[in-house]
Every structure is written in C-alpha cells, then in structure tokens.
Amino acid sequence: MAAPPAWWQTAVLYQIYPRSFCDRDGDGIGDLAGVRARLAYLRWLGVDGIWLSPIYRSPMADFGYDVSDHCAIDPVFGDLAGFDGLLGDVHDGGQRLLLDWVPNHTSDRHPWFVESRSSRASAKRDWYFWRDGRDGQGDAEPPNNWRAAFGGRAWTWDPTTAQWYLHLFLPEQPDLNWANPAVAEAMHGVLRFWLDRGVDGFRADVIHLIGKDAALPDQPPDLAEIDLVGVHDHPSAHPLLRGIRAVLDDYPGERVMVGEVNLGSPRLLAPYYGTGDELHMVFNFSLLWAPWDPLEWAARIAESEAALTPAGAWPVWVLSNHDTPRHRARYGGSEGRARVAATVLLTLRGTPFLYAGEELGLRDADVPAERRVDPGGRDGCRAPIPWDGSPGHGWPATPWLPWPPDATSTNAATLADDAGSILHLYRRLLAARRASAALHAGSWALLDAPPGVLAYERTAKDMGDRRRVWANFGDGAAECSADGRWTVQVDSSSPAADDHRVWDGHLAPASAVVLGPAG
Ligand code: NOJ
Predict the structure, then answer these.
(1) Which pLDDT value is given to residue 230?
(2) 205 classed as catalytic
(3) Pocket lined around ligand 1, Cβ cut-off 6 Å
(4) Of 93, 279, 326, 458, which one has the greatest count of Cβ atoms within 10 A?
C-alpha cells in the first residue's frame, strides 16, 4: 500500500488578500480581526487552510510585498497578539495557516537595507547587490541590461555611495544577496520566528529569483526588453532551497512550503521540488494563462502530469490570484464558464489554491484612474469582498478599492441563501472532493470526449474509488457517451437537489458534472 498522502496533498487552500477580505477596525482596509471573524464562513465553505498574503510591517509600495520588518504585523492589519489569536482559532477549527514569505527582496526601508546603503564599508553592504556603472560609466549606465517587473531597468543609482543597487521589482524593493550566508541565516531566522509561533507553512514569493549568477551577466539581446522574473532560472537556487527545506523539516507536523516560480512550462517547475528536499509544492500557472479551449486544457494538464509525476512532484493548480484578472473574465465572462472552471480546478490531481471571491463568481472591479493605487495595475482583482447586499456590503467604512460589479446581488450572504448559487456549487465540490479518495488522492487519466468537452477519470485503486468529470466548455449543449454506470454527484448547472440521477450523457451549455459509479 502506498504511504497515505500528507495533509497538504489532500487539502484545498484558500488565498486571502488581507486588505480586501474583511475590515473590523473601520479604516476601510481588511485586517486580521476581519479574517478571524470570517473563519466560520470558511469552515462552512469547506476549505482546509488559508494562505494569507503579506501582513508584515511595510511601507506598502507593493502592498506588503515590500517588507520592512519580517517579525512584526503592520498596524493596518493588527498586532502579534491578534495574529496569535487568529492562528489559535484557525487550528481550533481544524484548519491550517500559511503565511507569505518574501525571500527575494525587502523594502528599501528595512533596517538591513538602510544600513547597507549607508556606506560602502557597511557590514551589510554585501547583503544586497551594489555595483558600479558599466565600464566605469558611473550613473550614466547601469551594470547590466536587466529589466524590472513593473517597468524600467532593474537598477537604481544611489548618490550617497555612488553605486547602483539591484531590484527586480520596484526601486523600493531591493534584492537580497542570498549568496551571502548571513542573508540565508537571517531569512531562516524569519521562518523560525513564525514556525515557533505555530504556522503550518509558507507561500514563498518569486522564490526562483533567490539564486543568481554572481557575475550578473547581461540578458541575451532577444530577452533584453522583458523583465527577468519570467525567465530567471539559475541552478544556484537549488542548494538554497535545500537549506530552507531543512529549516522546515526541523519542525514537527509537516510544515510546508509552496513556491511561486514564474517559469511558464511545468517542465521547468519540476526541478524546484528537488528530490523531495526542496519545495513541497510549486504553483503551476499553466491553466491560469490557458485560452478557454478544452483541447488546450487537456494538453496542459497532460503536460503537467508528464513533467511532474515521474519526478514524484505533487501538482498545484491555480486559476486566479491577486496578480491577475479574475478567471471569470479571462475565460469569457459568463458564470457558466466560471462554474465549469471551478469544477475542473477542484477535481484535478494535486492541491488546488482558491483565490478569495472566486466562490462568489466575482468579477474585477472597474477602477477609475483616480482610485488606482497598484504599481502593477492589479487593483481590479483586489476589489473588496462584498459580504452582504447592504450599501456597505458588511464593511464598516468605504473600502480602499471600489466594489466588484453587481455587489448588491453578488455577495456572500445573498448567495448563501440560494442553494443554486455558485457559492453552493463550490461548497458541494469541496465536499465531494473531501469524500472521495479518487478526487483528493487518485490518479488522473484523460477520456475521449466530443468536441468542446474535457473529460477525465480519477482513480484511487487502493480504495476502490473512481470518479469521472465531464466539462462542456462550449456555449451549446453537448451529448457524451453514457453507459448507464454513472450517477451525477455534482452538476455545475443545477442545485444539489438534482444530483444522484443516472447520467444520460447530456451536458447543458457551459456546464460540468462530477460522476460516481452507479449502485
Ligand atoms: C509576486 C507577488 O505575487 C506580487 O504581488 C508581488 O508584486 C511580487 N511577487 C513582488 O514581491
């Protein structure tokens, strides 16, 4: 018998962008007390754990991905006592909590960088990347041709010490130099600080960037105009990841790390798992960027299976997060398609990450120019969660960003009262996944399907459990082969009361079914 799966393999994790989730102190910005107040909702929904986007002290140039104190909670979110209370409540409810960890860079206001920039002789000078201008050209020419993720070059000239410093994101986010063992040790210390408090693990921000070629060579001319984040894949990341994994493995209870590695192809992700000694999981964004076409989805899922399975690497599926327009819009805008996407996300082999608000079928807010605040243009998907149909939607003050469309009808309370809503569909899918070993731990195999339909089977041989999923991506009905041996467990287009009928092979437009064996 195979070893039982680890908790993080059978879990569904829910990403909370804390500023936009729930405000309790009345400043229009979500906070830890707000998360705590909504834990009952998350238990009702049926997710197994939460990933919190950064809550650390930060000047908020990149809304928390610019950390100025890794071991303090930003006052806008609360304090350490509030954090401990939240963690205790999460655990009491049988759920898990992952924090975001930002290893590649700090804020330019972090004391480490303040000290580093103060003088060329600073003890922390080498904690960041300081270089002279190319060929002695001083402030006229940066050291190499790297581009930053939010536009412009990846170097800023610092007149105090007359050198350039590297930042693959904003100038306010200088890159840490992980080749310096003191940096690695300090960042391990940050992990230990939170592990000692009892967190279950971390989501590691752009972690593939921590390994850099010490020579910082130019990008080849064909890549010179694009930012480095999507192509940077240097082998020196791997020993660093093994060091990080050793810190986690020192703690009881399978503390886990899921890494953001923005390298398109799943083939490039597999090495970041090491031989079970680097990252436990790596986000796979291949469906997030897929067109709404079942052949493309089948190809990308099969490609991921082929890249990850032989390496013993556990897949992770993501359709939305705080960096991209919500998938409903990306996949064409209809709620039917959002329901099909939810059905696929929650029935693939691997750990799904669900971005807060997807369960409500939210769309991005239309943010007028004068209210845009994000340097990366990502405000729309960060719109606040509408909790009810009142004018304030359950928020005590006007939120920091505008509401998503139709918040009067599209909100948690209204949808909770409607058994046929997308919210109840998510809840039924989560329950079906939890109840079936085939769905939460079984193998995956593609089935033949008519045009416009994606179909696959999930099998847990050991447990004698099988499920089939048929997903109609098309906007017309589809007829599939049904042999009378399957019953409908979840139908994305109808409320729970219609389930458990023998499946006749009919799929309504933009709908999906999860089937279990009849009898
Ligand atoms: C990836 C994060 O998801 C994004 O929000 C952030 O801006 C960058 N990393 C920089 O930390």
Answers:
(1) 87
(2) yes
(3) 62, 65, 102, 169, 205-206, 260, 322-323, 376
(4) 279
Classify 351 as helix, strand or coil. strand
pLDDT mean across residues, the chain: 96
Query: Which residue, 391, 393, 390, is CA-closest to 362?
Result: 393
From the list 205, 278, 364, 465, the catalytic residue is: 205
Q: How many Å lie between the centroid of ligand 1 and the Cα of residue 183? A: 20
* Residue closest to 468 by CA, chosen among 456, 478, 477, 484: 456
Give the tens place of pLDDT for each residue, 286-299.
Answer: 999 999 999 999 99
Query: Which of 470, 463, 416 has the alpha carbon at shortest distance from 442?
Result: 463
Query: How far apart, in whole angstroms, are the C-alpha atoms of residue 411 and residue 423?
Result: 9
Pocket probe mutation, ligand 1, options 323, 324, 382, max atoms within 8 Å of Cβ: 323
Distances (CA, A) of 239 to 183, 201, 312, 397: 14, 20, 19, 47
What average pLDDT does range 447-469 have in this prediction?
A: 96
Q: Whole-angstrom Cα distance, residue 207 to residue 173?
A: 14
The rounded distance, in Å, linking the Cα atoms of 250 and 257 is: 13
Query: How far apart are alpha carbons 90 and 84 in whole angstroms?
Result: 10
Instruction: Dump pLDDT digits (tens) for 263-283.
Output: 988 999 999 999 999 999 999
Report the C-alpha gap between 292 and 79 in whole angstroms. Answer: 43
Query: Whole-angstrom distance between the N-terminal and C-terminal Cα of the chain?
Result: 26
Atom of ligand 1 nearest to the CA of 62: 7
